[in-house]
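Example with several molecule types.
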Amino acid sequence: QESKTSGLPEYVKIVEVGPRDGLQNEKVIVPTDIKIELINQLSKTGLPAIEVTSFVSSKWVPQMADHKEVMRGIERYPGVQYPVLTPNLQGFHSAIAAGATEVSVFGAASESFSKMNINCSIEESIDKFEEVVKAARNMNIPVRGYVSCALGCPYEGNITPAKVAEVSKRLYSMGCYEISLGDTIGVGTPGSMKRMLEAVMKEIPLNALAVHCHDTYGQALANILTAIQMGVAVVDSSVAGLGGCPYAKGATGNVATEDVIYMLNGLGINTGVDLYAVMEAGNFICTALNKKTNSKVAQASFNIGTVN
Amino acid sequence: LGSLLSFPLSPQVSAAAAAGAFPKRVKVVEVGPRDGLQNEKTIVPTPVKIGLINMLSETGLQVIEATSFVSPKWVPQMADHTEVMQGINKIPGVSYPVLTPNLKGFQAAVAAGAKEVSIFGAASELFTKKNINCSIEESLERFGEVMTAARAASIPVRGYVSCVLGCPYEGKISPAKVAEVSKKMYSMGCYEISLGDTIGIGTPGSMKEMLTAVMKEVPVGALAVHCHDTYGQALANVLVALQMGVSVVDASVAGLGGCPYAQGASGNVATEDLVYMLNGLGIHTGVDLQKLMDTGTFICNALNRRTNSKVSQANCRL
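Resulting structure tokens for the full complex:
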């Protein structure tokens, strides 16, 4: 098949972050039952991993205030992972009590971003995560590590690939099973993606890497393609491209899951995901949010045949 | 003409492509004033069109498709083709090609001062029938007349092939068909063949397959890609084309021009987003991105619409 001979992975795991990263960055706060319905619909699409919610203080992230109810309310489909964000030990314990079986921690490759976001240095944040990872390992709970600002920072500008590699290596050595490299403000291009991955791949095995590309500058799919060409086989995305960019008003954020799957399908890469079912889930949540989808595939598909 | 000049280049281009390297320079062909405006709902007054083209001329773009010499009965948006052609400032070093679907259009274009023209073929019989009411073969015969006249006047002709990655009526299009039509147009004397993913349905997979077939018949130095972003795939498709050695890319400022086959869906890829990517790859285009964004702002204000360019939307200060 095409993907076998072309050097591309045969299978790419899609990590759906819409219910967490997506909804967290939407202006409208979505009621608990809608969140649960969205996740249940996504569970039926074949997606192997769906990031459900975030166990952070509702003072900081009101959109995720109902984390316990959501975690307890969703149907858990066999073979699907439901990771949640746990920024500290308290959040971790709360997540476990609510039934979580996988968690994520968020580091950054930028000191300024770390300071502005969680009011501490990268080193201090890693100490906090270490507590979470230790506790998680004791309970056989897998931990995913995110590295923000992998291709640029809203405060510092350029981020060196070496710094990204260093932070990634810390998280991986501490016990994170996978490192998701995030282009937080979407400034990256295939050029900077390649350079960054080359540096990170010296420290971390390829099969433990994921890319989390934002489409703020329209570069996401080209960046994802570059990563896949280099052997990365895990891609984060958000149904309907939910979640704007908090650093550029009115700009888009997450890449749309539908558009990613469309590209992977066209490359003959298996994802196990039913594109049409994802579009339907996207349609559901956009209707609930009273907004247009950010997915071009969804826009085109729902209008095909309506010839002008 | 150009087709002869590209031959000495092509072995080097192919070798670079084989090494997985990108071209060092990419020529961006700006189609906003024609392909863009032709597919916008609002008809733009002549002075605004001229203002747009003049602003584009200041950005460093080397090629700006100015208008189309077709009957205003079919394309009312381009009814002012003569006035536009005569009204624009022609900057030395910048080319202003115009569409000429037949001999009559060609003659009108030359009379209005055109120095380069384009003709449009398609890799789909049904699309050709629906669009210009004849077969591919018949359309190429018509173009033959234009080619003969153009050669006599020393006017370069660019050939477009539509539906290269799919057709709104036929669905799948075979790469072999695209290669066949491209070869015919190239042999007729077109100096460059722009391969158009008319409904934006292509992906890096189908782009690669199609280009592999076409590159057997037409030297890569004579190829361009014209990707639509209807399914969000345009930049990924352009990336693959660049990796295969293509170094000419069409785009439309502010992503002007929706898709006529899917209401509300986007069409052309935005020049700003393309240039952003090329800049990031260290590929030289000669285009000033800020001036380009300013031009996009100008035309979007005139059209009273939001830009389709994500780079423009973001306008993030780093």
